[in-house]
Lipoprotein
Amino acid sequence: MQTLIKKLSLLIVTNFLLFGCASSYHPIAPQSLSYNSTYKLDDFKLRYEYNVLRNNKYKKKESKRGIHLVAVEFTNNSDHDVVFGKDVLLLSTSGAYLDPISTQDAFVGLKQSVESYLLYLLLSFTTFDRTTTDSNGRTESSSFPIGLIIGPGIAGGNMITAGNANAKFKSELEMYDIMNKTIHAGETKHGIVALRTNSYPSLTLKLAGDQE
């Protein structure tokens, strides 16, 4: 029994070290950011910012998964509508085309793991043992299954928190999906772009009809 408890304890500690406790999601809100990088092309202006995730649960996965989110502010000062990512293309300063990944792929790659917190159910095997000795030297032992309260409580609480945070994260990614969206003449639009890259390339723009 002691061996089983030790193994369960090791699993719980390992889970805590890998995943810790679930945390809430803090919105990126690209419309409220201060942008430090700017690129202009004719009547179009792009402002952008990396490292916009404010929650370490998601932020740590950016480098691990090779997915970086970029908050962007695109201004169309021309006299005609354009489609971002189709009429106006996103490039790196090296001239390489950047093909952002979908909102769904970014979400799957960076979301919190909800199922991992099920390991806390192993705490259900924990008992509170008590031994008492009366005046005649007789001993009595009692046991209370405290783990049946702690285990499901910790597991459930973390899973609810992670699930709610993931829902808010996905909702914001969808709300600010700017790729293939029409930007009207005179309009400024904010968005979040997900790039499959291990670095932080400087961004430029190119008109789809321009020659190399």
The chain has a mean pLDDT of 84. The radius of gyration is 26 Å. Strands lie at 37-41, 44-49, 67-76, 82-83, 88-92, 128-133, 139-144, 182-183, 188-196, 203-207.
